[in-house]
Amino acid sequence: MFINDRHLSNRPIQWQAHQNSNSEVPENTMAAMKYAWELGGIPEIDIRQTADGIIIGHHDATPKRTLSVPEADQDKQISELTFDQIQQWDAGVKFGEQFRMEKVPSLEQVLTVLSEHPDRQLYLDFKDVDLEVLSGLIRDYGVARQIIFAHNSHENCKSIKRLVPEVRTMLWIPVRSSETAMQTFTDIRQTGFESLDIVQLHLPDGEEKRPWRYKLEKGFIQEALQYLAEAGMELEVLPFKFEQEDLFELLNMGIRRFAVDEPSIFVERLKRYVE
C-alpha cells in the first residue's frame, strides 16, 4: 500500500453521488436524493433560482435536456420560469418509465428531509442563486453543519462561509490540463486554503490507461493530499471512469473522499476493498 499517513488511512470513506452524469437515477430529483442516502452516500443537488425566487434542483440553464417540456419552453432560461411552471413538467420519464411523475424539487423540500435526519449530509453545487437567499434557507432549516457548498469559484466559497460559517465549503478544480489544475491548486494553497474545507480534483482519463489511468499526475495528487491533510482539510477526487484496480490504487494512496457517477458500482467495489 502507498498510504504514508496513518491519520489519512484511518479516515472513513465518504462519497458524493455526482448528479448531472449519474447513470442510475434521474438527476436532481427526490428519488436521486433518497437513492444516495440509502446507499450510504451524500447526494448532490445543483441549485438554480426561478423567476419567482424559488431555489430548485436543476443542473442546466434551460429545462430542455432533462424535463418533458413543450417545444415552446425548451430553450427558456430557468431564471425566466416560475416554480409552478417547472412543476408541471416531468423530471423522471426521460430517464425511465419507472420514474414517471418525478418533479423538480425545491431546495426547501430537500432541506425538510435533511433536517429530519441529522446523520445525513448534502452537497449544494452552486449554479445560479442569490447567496443571501440560500444562506437564509440553510439557517431556517438548521442544517448548516450537514451542508457542503461546492463551486469552482473561490470567491463564492468565501462568501457563503461568511454568511453561514458552519457550512463546509468545497472548491472543485477541473482538469482541462495538468498544468492549469496544478496552478489553480498552488494559487489557493498560497491563500492558506482560505474559507475552504475540501478541495476536489477532477480525474479525466489520460491518453494512456496504464500504468496510471488519469490525466492528472499521480505524484501531484499525492502532494495535494498531503498538503491538505497538514492543513486539516480533505481531498476529494472525481474519477470519471474507474475499474476496480483504479479505485483500489486511489484508496491505497490515502484518498477517503470520492465523487462518483455510478453509485451502486462504487459501493460494490468499495465492499471488496474493505473486506
TrEMBL record:
GO biological process, one term: lipid metabolic process
CDD domains reported for this sequence: GDPD_AtGDE_like (cd08566)
Coiled-coil residue spans: none
One MF term in the entry's GO annotations: phosphoric diester hydrolase activity
Superkingdom of origin: Bacteria
InterPro entries: GP_PDE_dom, PLC-like_Pdiesterase_TIM-brl
PROSITE patterns (UniProt xref): GP_PDE
Domain GP-PDE: start-end pairs: 13-275
PANTHER family given in the database record: GLYCEROPHOSPHODIESTER PHOSPHODIESTERASE (PTHR46211:SF14), GLYCEROPHOSPHORYL DIESTER PHOSPHODIESTERASE (PTHR46211)
Name of the protein in question: Glycerophosphodiester phosphodiesterase
Naturally occurring in which organism (per UniProt): Paenibacillus silvestris
